[in-house]
Amino acid sequence: MKGRVLIVAGSDSGGGAGIQADLKAVTALDAFGATAITALTAQNTRGVDAVFPVPPDFIGRQMEVVLDDIGADAIKTGMLHSAEVIDEVARVYERLGRGAPLVVDPVMVAKGGARLLKPDAEGALRARLLPLAALLTPNIPEAEALTGVVIDSVDAMRSAAAQLLAMGPRAVLLKGGHLPGATVVDVLRTAPGPGASGLPEGEQLFEDARIETRATHGTGCTLASAIAAGLAQGLALVPAIGRARRYLREAMRSAPGLGQGHGPLNHAHTARPFP
């Protein structure tokens, strides 16, 4: 096992998303996951019933003690429900985590529709966290919220990814699963100069046939954490994304079929490091 990933995110009592999905993905890819839990949720495959937020100072303390002792080779954020939480996470990262690439999954709305980020926190996300990110991983609704534009095509995704990149992250992976069609396209946009991508400024598209399944709960959490595991293990950004996407697709294909709503993935589809 190599690569330490500090995951800053909320807990999913149903086990399909959030911290639970993050830890499963990181472990399956042979990295080590530590956590700073931002909120407890009462949820299942049908939706989020209740949210119990963790105080910002305690979130920061969790991060501090992990970084002081275990350390991290990558840091991944998920559900950060308020401006105060975002500011605290950014503060600790700036002080103790700068050497580790930061993967920001801008969790705003749960799969069942429950809002997980307060509307007044979107400004804090743009101002405080995006400029620190090595990679931002929004889906289309999240990208629409951050940019204020409608995304209804791959060309619109490409334009939105460029707008998001201008907000400060060194790379943006805009996920296209919400667009209709038999092919799913993800758009990677990278900034010039050295950074997590190892690429010159530019764009790369990832295309795959759509998997028809209701097992989509936790796909965003899983992908971002799988990428973070790759970065923690020393992979460049594009290979880390490629491996993470292969891992996610197999987790969807072999999902266990649990629950009555958006079902969980099979994070344990491999008992060995995934190629």
Question: Explain this structure to me?
Answer:
The two termini are 14 Å apart. This protein has helices at residues 18-28, 56-69, 83-97, 122-129, 140-147, 154-165, 219-232, 237-253; strands at 4-12, 32-44, 47-53, 74-77, 102-104, 135-136, 171-174, 183-190, 202-209. Strand 7 (171-174) and strand 8 (183-190) form a beta hairpin. It has 275 residues and is α/β, with parallel strands linked by helices. The mean pLDDT is 92.
Low-confidence stretches: none
SSE succession: EHEEHEHEHEHHEEEHH
* Alpha-carbon distance between the two ends: 14 Å
Radius of gyration: 17 Å
Largest sheet data: 6 strands, mixed
Q: Strands, helices and their partners?
A:
Blueprint lengths: L3 E9 L5 H11 L3 E13 L2 E7 L2 H14 L4 E4 L5 H15 L4 E3 L17 H8 L5 E2 L3 H8 L6 H12 L5 E4 L8 E8 L11 E8 L9 H14 L4 H17 L22
Parallel strand pairs: 1-2, 1-4, 4-5, 5-6
Antiparallel strand pairs: 2-3, 7-8, 8-9
Brief digest:
It is built from 8 helices and 9 strands.
Short key terms for the protein model shown above:
single chain; 275 residues; alpha/beta; 6-stranded mixed beta sheet; 3-stranded antiparallel beta sheet; 9 strands; 36% helix
